[in-house]
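Hi L.,

As promised, Exodeoxyribonuclease III:
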Amino acid sequence: MRIATYNVNGVNGRLPVLLRWLEETTPDVVCLQELKAPQEKFPEQAIRDAGYDVAWHGQKSWNGVAILSRVGEIKELRRALPGDPDDVNSRYIEAVVNGILIGCLYLPNGNPAPGPKFDYKLSWFKRLIAHSKDLLAQDLPVVLTGDYNVMPTELDVYKPEKWVDDALFRPETRAAFHELVAQGWTDALRKLYPDEKIYTFWDYFRNAFGRDAGLRIDHFLLSPQLAPRLKKAGVDKHVRGWEKSSDHAPVWIELKG
């Protein structure tokens, strides 16, 4: 079973790229972030024509998350992270697909830091940590995946010295990610490639992709029930080089059974 995550950076504007990638790689389940489309403008028919069931939580202008499946029904559980009923941003959707509970998330960027946006990022992270603890307590196979907007270590960022004050790399952000993982989650890519340079995002500016000046900010966290099934993981880096592609590349894992 192949599960992928992809920050599409605008699902309608990048639809040809998304459909081309789906046809090329045929992942079983896909989590999308940054749809940048209100609920009624999501390209549902095009996704279904590509062979996928879909559940999505859109939002005008920004944010937005979706789960796609070609291996059975998407049994949606929630479309908001618990803990703040006043938070109207579309950043989380959760469903059971083929016996696996999948949380698709788009964690806030947080810049400029310090400031209100950074405070929101950290408060969102606290809510995620609380909810993920509850998920682990259910003793289910769980995947938490998406754009975390965190580089956990210096290995995950090109020229880390240039990012020390950025919200994606500040000590508070990295500490929150490590607190999350320490609950018992497995960082899938680092489990298989503990010492390799792996990036999932390259900025549009300064020829970042051509220079391979990237960041690893899209992650797969696996619960203890699921981690032993991890077989492969990777980044479809070439997709970032396609015309009118997102600044993220798709990331994927393969599970046994």
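The chain is about 25% helix and 25% strand.

Thanks again for sending the construct details.

K.
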